[in-house]
Amino acid sequence: MRGYVLAFVILLLFFVSCTRDKTSSNCPPCTSAISFKTNVLPIFQISCAVQGCHDVTTHAAAVVLDSANAYTNITQAGTGYIIAYNANASLFYTTLNSPGVNGMPKGLPPLPQCQVEAIACWINQGAKNN
What's the predicted TM-score (pTM) here? Predict the structure, then answer.
């Protein structure tokens, strides 16, 4: 009986050690520069600057995220939406990560984790208009 228990424990440890860490992501690491125009703006255009949210007509929270106004609106001094070099202090990023009703985009599925991480990376790299 002891042999079966020992074999079961060893087998269990083997399977547990071979599983991937569920908290880690498969997103590219934040090591290369993230471009606002190439990486961040397309996310805004597809998921944020839509009717009822941050488009020119609705401009929820007085933020318009279409291509002409996105950078200026999101980085406006004094709003706290984006705090360059500090995603965790940026209202936009923390709201984006809020679960449930307070999260963005409202009424839609959450953004894919890699897009959220790309936005955080862009902010932590200084939120440049590049």
Answer: 0.76
Amino acid code (one letter) for 124: N
Confirm whether 6 is domain-assigned.
no
Give the pLDDT confidence of 45-76 residue by residue, as tens digits. Answer: 998 888 888 888 888 888 889 888 899 989 99
User: Does 77 reside within a domain?
Assistant: yes
What is the reported pLDDT for 45? Answer: 92
The DSSP line for 52-118 is TTTSTTT-GGG---STTTHHHHHT-TTS-S--TT-GGG-HHHHHHT--GGGSSSTTSPPPPHHHHHH
Task: Tell me, yes or no, whether 66 lies in a domain.
Answer: yes
Three-state SS sequence of 39-66 = HHHHHHHHHHCCCCCCCCCCCHHHCCCC
